[in-house]
Design a protein that fits this description.
Layout (H helix, E strand, L loop, with lengths): L27 E5 L5 E6 H10 L3 E6 L6 E5 L1 H21 L2 E7 L4 H16 L3 E7 L8 H14 L4 E3 L4 E3 L2 E8 L6 H7 L4 H8 L8
Parallel strand pairs: 1-4, 5-6
Antiparallel strand pairs: 1-2, 3-4, 6-9, 7-9, 8-9
């Protein structure tokens, strides 16, 4: 709420992360020009005048410095670029999902290969994959064999993925998360074109693997 009366009224700072223009309270500031040039310590009125002459904003970038550091810039453009970066970061985080694939202690070789192939498809699309192996009843006594089975999965996908840590036991479930490796130029094209490579296998197993568990 603004205070009314004689003299200049108090204006609360805007809900931005920086004070700008007339919201800056310091009597003098260390000024940086639009091109990054250090202009020294100047009175706030001079800093505001220079910003107005450049048809830009005066932005307080280091409020805790003594005196505060201000820069002349296009604040609207700066905020737009920051919002774009944040939105891009959120988009990347949202698109990188974790796909869960289930295995059993008694999963046979054929079903295991299908689940490996399905995991390969997810990894090539940029998703992380969590393999979960469930033990039933007395199978809990054979956890080491379960670890060996998950290790086979990790080894089969080692060309495109790496495990995020070692397999973890949670209740009756042993799990491991695989993350896609950074893409290398020419690698995906070569693997798709090679006989028996992942590109030909993907089209053959995409339908048959959906029902395995």
């Amino acid at each position: 709420m603004a205070f009314r009366g004689r003299g200049p009224r108090f204006i609360p700072p805007p809900p931005d992360q920086h004070r700008i223009n007339r919201y800056i309270r310091a009597s003098q500031v260390r000024l940086i020009g639009p091109d990054g040039t250090q202009l020294g310590i100047v009175p706030i009125e001079e800093a505001l005048r220079r910003a107005e002459e450049a048809q830009l904003d005066l932005v307080e970038v280091a409020p805790n410095a003594d005196p505060p550091v201000c820069r002349i810039m296009d604040y609207g453009k700066y905020k737009y670029q920051q919002h774009k970066k944040e939105a891009e970061a959120r988009r990347k985080q949202a698109t990188t999902t974790v796909k869960e694939l289930r295995l059993g202690y008694r999963t046979d070789v054929g079903d295991l290969e299908r689940q490996i192939q399905k995991g390969r498809e997810f990894l090539l699309e940029g998703d992380r994959v969590k393999y979960v192996l469930r033990f039933r009843g007395r199978e809990m006594a054979y956890q080491e064999r379960g670890r060996e089975k998950l290790q086979k999965v990790c080894d089969a996908l080692a060309d495109i993925a790496q495990p995020e840590g070692t397999p973890k036991m949670e209740g009756r479930m042993l799990s491991v998360v695989l993350a896609p490796q950074a893409k290398k130029k020419g690698k995906s094209a070569a693997s798709t074109a090679s006989p028996g490579g992942s590109g030909t296998e993907r089209s053959q197993t995409a339908e048959g693997s959906s029902g395995s568990s």
